[in-house]
Amino acid sequence: MNKKISTSIKRVDAGIKTGGAARYIGDIPFDGLLYGKIVRSSRARATIKSVSVPALPEGYYYIDAKDIPSGGRNRIEMIKDDWPVFADEQVRFIGETLGLLVGPDRKELNRLRDEVQVEYEDLTPVFSIEESEALKGGPIHGEDNTYADYRLKKGDPDAAFAKAARVIEDTVRTGFQEHIYMEPQGVVARTEDDGKLGIFFSGQCPFYVRHAVSATMGVPEDQVRVQQAVTGGAFGGKEHYPDVISTPLAVAARKIGKPIGLFFDRVEDISFTPKRHPSVTRFKTALDEEGNILGMDIDVRIDAGAYESCSMVVLQRAIFSVNSVYNIPNVKIRGRAFATNNVPSDAYRGFGAPQGLFAIEAHMSHLARAIKVDELKLKQQYLLKQGDVTVTNGRIHEEVKLPEIIQRIDEMSGYSKKLKEYTPGSWKGVGVSLFNHGSGFTGNGEQEIIKGVVKMRKRADGLVDLLVSNVEMGQGLQTTFRKIAAMVLELPVDSVVYNDPNTDLVPDSGPTCASRSIAVVGYLVQEAAKKLKDRWKESDIVEVRQQYEPPEGLIPWDQANLQGDAYPSYGWGANVIEVEVDPLTYEVTTKGIWAVHDVGVAIDEKVVEGQVDGGIIQALGYGSLEKLEVKEGRFQQKTMADYTIPTTMDFPKIKSALVDNPYEYGPFGAKGAGELVFDGAAAAFADAVQMAINGDVKQIPVTPEYIMEVREDGNN
Amino acid sequence: MVDSYRPLSLKEALDLRADTGAMPFAGGTDLMVRYRYESGAIPDYPRPVMFVNQLDDLRKIRRIDHGLSIGAAVTMTEVLDHDDVPEILKEALLTIAAPGLRNTATIAGNICNASPAGDSICALYALDAGVKLQSPGGERIEPIYQFITGPGKIDLHADEILTEIIIPEDHSTIHLFKKVGTRRANALSKLTLSAVARISDSRIDEIRIAIGAVAPTVVRSLELEKRMEGRSLKEVALEAEDILRDYDALVQPIDDQRSTAVYRKRVAMNLVRHFLLGVVLQQKGA
Amino acid sequence: MATINFSVNGTSHAIDTDPLRRLLDILREDLKLTGVKEGCGEGECGACSVLKNGILVNSCMIPIGTCEGTEIITPEGLRETVQGKAIIDAYGESGAVQCGFCTPGMMMATEALLRKNPSPSEGEAREALSGNLCRCTGYDMIIDGVLKAAERGKGLW
Predict the structure, then answer these.
(1) Is the pLDDT of residue A465 over 80?
(2) Angstroms from B8 CA to nearest CA on chain C
(3) CATH number for the domain that contains residue A542
(4) What is the full per-residue pLDDT of chain C (157 aa) written as tens digits?
(5) Do A190 and A80 sit in the same domain of this protein?
């Protein structure tokens, strides 16, 4: 381990945040600020016949598609542009934006909103993958309701199935998950003194917002200035959604000429903002006489909701993850993202990988139970190694340290010992999961779409400006980016100036997502710092620029066929979880949590440990507590009382360790960490519960209600 | 917008209540949630509001003949900190929300909110508690199981204020409180069991079993309790399955956003069975 | 409308307002004390925690009409005290802060705990902060921060 870079320093933003001095979007004073309130569809699928707005008092406005300037478009340009800024003829989900009421008093806005009369002609909505696939009510999208339909093949799966002694079928399901960033969504738009449109927002991707707003407004991108405010958590929930609310707000701000803030109430946030995609994964696994896996046939379906947004990319990661750390010789994978009339699903920490990884881990454990072999031994038989072929027929280029990771976690947790001690079905159990996560954009996204740029400037006062568009959102970037630059430049950390990005001042280094900030942009920071160091003495002010280039030696990516190296490098990990189940109430007490990860090299051990702790607890929420049911297109748990994230009391202290494995193209050897640490805990939890109750656990969240069902009624 | 009042004496409060029909507001934590509007807006109270949390007359916990009186404005934290409060009530209160909310919330408010999932309410049923209701014309005391008439429904007259909670002396020798919540802290109930019994010489002198969130109001059967009281553990053991079957008939839960009817039913009966067979009948001399 | 007399962080205020407005809104909007955050508006998340007469409360659950004559401490007030500084330092060293939106509320809950119990166990610290939700940290480092503040600040509470 590179001790120097990994040794923790005090987070640069800790003091200002703890004392309440940090300014989040709702804390920034704007003179004469008006408030916006979205008028939303109450129907899941309907044609809009008419919208009748009540008489508005002086100083109140109703904004809709008619107010989009000529040259602009009523479309939100995200990865896809199918989502309209204002619903035009049809609505596709409950909560879709019809218009925006603007005025000075929030209660009055609420009253006016409740008085807007909309006449609908209802169509038949679909609320599940199954209904979508059956084309209930006719297709919502295209001819078959799929936004994407991918097929992958590795080896010769048909031959494998032809010689199988036994085929085991299994279906695994995962549910919605709500982000519950502690700070709800918020955006402010105004016309700036220089005539530009100014957008201030809580979120991850300033240039995404700039792009979407400029397209909607029909103005050049440099006529929109986006400033990130201190952001109170995001987890993917503020990757694209800020585009959805910035665009109508920009239309309103331009028309009305005053600053307008749109701040979500928590109930509104839970009810109408995107969630993690629910999934259904069906496995057919071919085994020979001895129980060796010959091949797998896997069908992954995800509920993408009412608009596509980024769902096809989520689906790509889901299917690339569904063989996880295993080298299954012959595999056939189909993946489909289905349109439904649920709230659009979108980015959430892991971006499809948690669904794929949970599915394969659950399936491997079910296989082990079915053929009565030790689960970890079965998994170890198929571990990927350096040089192995992936499901996209790419290669694993790095050394895979899973054997070391597994040995380490076994020592820490006593997994093997406990496995022998506890009898399945005795209400005590221990579970394990293995997982990996590709760092950065999928496929050739980094070089073809993002083309990230970092700038660094030596100032006359001797300080260094770090100019990047990636944001601090809790993950520690304010600290880690500065450390990388400072360490290369051999300067104190506080000599590096890195402000919350403003699109007028920083280059587009790409969005803050996909575990790319350290792995990809952090490397650009390191390389820029090296350049600057070389040129330090040139003059008082020196500016350098560094653009992304793909690492050498990769198998080129074929986007049409999804073939080649999907990711240049991976983080790797293992989790062990120990539980006890209450035989009277089926409630689970988690007795222990262990984690070992390979993130290359930690840029700051404490920051990485914080990611590990937070990722695991969020994943345990996903795996056990966070039930989010949709009924007729409405989420049933829409308050923080009913949608239950973990508290201080739900889980015990986590014991974690890192395995050093420097990556050549990462800063100081670092790889991505932010999503990897989310990927394994739900599966380890489910595995532990299934040992405790001696029944196959096939879905998350593993609620007491579900445990009762499996234990008392069986589900096999 | 509605009016609000801040009376300085109980008498003034009673007069205001009679004159204006204002809603008494003690801790207000249930009212603030029930009438919550959206962020930044005043809650949407349907009637005038009268703050009573400052009234000294309602802020006392005192011993009374054969029991304890808890003033309507005493916070849950204050109840928890008091030595004379029965253990089962403290256990119930500790499962409600979190310290910050318990510093504001009151038991009286919990009762008037009359949620079938109210955790303190369930314990109060098991303690055979009553409520004192005062009006300018006088006062009455009602057992809690009569005061609460349905989900969110209470037998409070238009001129009355709930002023005290009366808890008879707790002579139980054993008790069991179990809340099955949506998580381990800061949780709402899926269901709750509160049960107490007094056993001497292998005989059940007293037994009260209350089950919350499995019917429109907390389930408690005086009839089934009478069937067990005054009888030996041996006799009750012979009838235990019959008694459990009768409890089973009373447990009629629903599906909602927190749990399922099937789960509530089974777990409620697991807990009643555990209390009866695993706790009561296991007492010495059974 | 009524005039509410109360003190915030040691300064007296007389505010003419509807007594049914939430303390949270008075603090954030009228007094610009934006260290108090709104995370849920229903007493679940603790981001709006303040001390009212030394007792931890959720300011989203408190009508200003019930604050007559009370003393309110917000994060802005606490951070200027030696106790507040000790908590801030301990949080910083423990890695307790990530996005920071819950953290001022966590600091208030920590202060309330240490006033009542200056040397809490891990379990007591977890119980005391159970009404303060955090989505980033998984809580372990926040609990470390509470225990570190207690240890370092011995004698302050």
Answers:
(1) yes
(2) 12
(3) 3.30.365.10
(4) 999 999 999 999 999 999 999 999 999 999 999 999 999 999 999 999 999 999 999 999 999 999 999 999 999 999 999 999 999 999 999 999 999 999 999 999 999 999 999 999 999 999 999 999 999 999 999 999 999 999 999 999 9
(5) yes
Q: Which residues of A touch C140 (CB under 8 A)?
A: 613, 653-654
What are the structural domains of chain C? Answer: 2-74 (3.10.20.30), 79-152 (1.10.150.120)
Q: Which of A265, A266, A647 sits opposite B183 (nearest CB)?
A: A647
Same domain assignment for residues A311 and A452: no
Please tell me the predicted confidence (pLDDT) of residue A713: 83
What per-residue confidence (pLDDT) applies to B54? 94
Domain range for A290? 279-442+563-713
Is C42 in CB contact (< 8 Å) with chain B?
A: yes
| Of the partner residues A110, A629, A646, the one whose CB lies closest to the CB of residue B183 | A646
Same domain, A234 and A371: no
**Position A631 in a domain:** yes
Tell me if B40 and C29 make a contact (CB, 8 A cut-off): yes
Restricting to A residues 401-430, those with a Cβ less than 8 Å away from any Cβ of C are none
Looking at residue A642, its amino acid is D
Last residue of a domain, one of A245, A272, A299: A272
* Angle at the Cα of B91 from the Cα atoms of B86 and B93, rounded to 5 degrees: 95
Residue A585 and residue B271: Cβ atoms within 8 Å?
Answer: yes
What is the rounded average pLDDT of the residues A427-456?
96
Hey, which residues does B61 pair with through a beta bridge? B70
Distances (CA, A) of B73 to A680, B144, B161: 48, 17, 11
Is C57's Cβ below 8 Å from some Cβ in A? no
Whole-complex ipTM? 0.98
Q: How far apart are CA A480 and CA A5, in angstroms?
A: 9
CA distance B73 to chain A (A): 24
Q: Residue range A250-279: average pLDDT?
A: 98
Residue A148 lies in a domain: no
- Statement: residue A715 has pLDDT above 80: no
Largest CA distance in chain A: 80
Task: Give the one of B38, B185, B263 whose C-beta lies nearest to A106's C-beta.
Answer: B38
| CATH number for the domain formed by residue range(s) B174-282 | 3.30.390.50
How far is it, in rounded angstroms, from Cα A427 to Cα A438? 36
Question: Which among B184, B260, B274 has CB closest to A649?
Answer: B184
Q: Is the dihedral of CA C92, C98, C102, C106 positive or negative?
A: negative
Same domain for A701 and A590: yes
Residue A628, token pair as written in the block? 């989010």
The fold of B4-52+59-168 is 3.30.465
Q: What is the pLDDT of residue B38?
A: 82
Helices and strands: H and E segment counts in chain B = 11, 14
- The CATH 3.30.390.50 portion of chain B extends over 174-282
Q: Residues of C with CB below 8 A from A616's CB?
A: 138
Question: Which regions of chain B are under pLDDT 70?
Answer: 285-286
Same domain membership, residue A352 and residue A316: yes
Last residue of a domain, one of A272, A305, A339: A272
* C-alpha span between A620 and A577 (Å, rounded): 10
Asked if A644's CB is within 8 angstroms of B187's CB, the reply is yes
Pairing of strands B153-154, B148-150: antiparallel
Same domain for A493 and A372, yes or no, is: no
Residue A354 corresponds to which amino acid?
A: P
Put simply, the answer to whether B184 touches A629 (Cβ < 8 Å) is: no
Asked if the structure places residue A496 within a domain, the reply is yes
Q: Are A686 and A431 in contact (CB under 8 A)?
A: yes
Number of domains in chain A: 3
Residues A292 and A334 in one domain: yes
Residues A397 and A500 reside in one and the same domain = no
Cβ distance C58 to B104 less than 8 Å, yes or no, reads: yes
pLDDT, one tens digit per residue, over B150-184 is 999 999 999 999 999 999 999 999 999 999 999 99
Judge whether A153 lies within some domain.
Answer: no
Cα distance between residue C62 and residue C48, in whole Å: 11
Least CB–CB distance from C130: residue in A13, A230, A647: A647
Nearest to A452 by CA among A228, A205, A196, A198: A205
